[in-house]
Amino acid sequence: MKTRGILTTAAIATAVVFTLATTTAQADDCDDIMDALKKLGERVMNYKDDAKTPLAVCGAVGQVLGILKASRETAAECYEDGAKRSKILLDLDKVNKEMEGQVDSLCK
């Protein structure tokens, strides 16, 4: 089922990106913001498990995409320039692109 594949990809991608972002973060307000975004993403991912219709699934995945984009903007502003920041941004961009492609094929 396409929707299950998208949701599984979204869950895995979200977990990987947020784990990377929080383990490489500096000990400041950025950590708190990224933690809040991570919790919000987890809450949405748990809610989407109840989604039975393609429209509900598309809505949930759209929310996750929004959270990932907010996370990217936060990381771009908060973390110092360097290899760690570049890796976080690259990973977030990759996840966003993959998810948008999957959503485009399912949610029309």
Would you write up a description of this structure?
The chain is 84% helix and 0% strand. The protein has helices spanning 2-23, 29-48, 54-78, 83-106. The protein starts with a helix and ends with a helix. The mean pLDDT is 76. Helix 1 packs parallel to helix 3, helix 2 (29-48) packs antiparallel against helix 3 and helix 3 (54-78) packs antiparallel against helix 4 (83-106). It has four helices and no strands. The chain is mainly alpha-helical. The chain has a single domain (2-106), classed as Four Helix Bundle (Hemerythrin (Met), subunit A), CATH 1.20.120.
Question: Main traits of this protein?
Answer:
mainly alpha, Four Helix Bundle (Hemerythrin (Met), subunit A), 84% helix, globular
Chart the SSEs and their pairings.
Layout: H1 2-23, H2 29-48, H3 54-78, H4 83-106
Helix pairs in contact: 1-2, 1-3, 1-4, 2-3, 3-4
Count of individual helical segments: 4
**Multimerization status:** single chain
> What is the end-to-end distance?
16 Å
Low-confidence stretches: none
> Over the alpha carbons, how many angstroms does the gyration radius reach?
14 Å
What's the architecture in CATH terms? Up-down Bundle
Fill in the CATH topology.
Four Helix Bundle (Hemerythrin (Met), subunit A)
Large-scale geometry: globular
- Compute the number of strand runs: 0
Biggest sheet features:
none
- The helical percent reads over 70%
Strand content: under 5%
Please indicate the count of domains: 1
Mean pLDDT across every amino acid position: 76
H-E order? HHHH
CATH class: Mainly Alpha
The secondary-structure class comes to mainly alpha
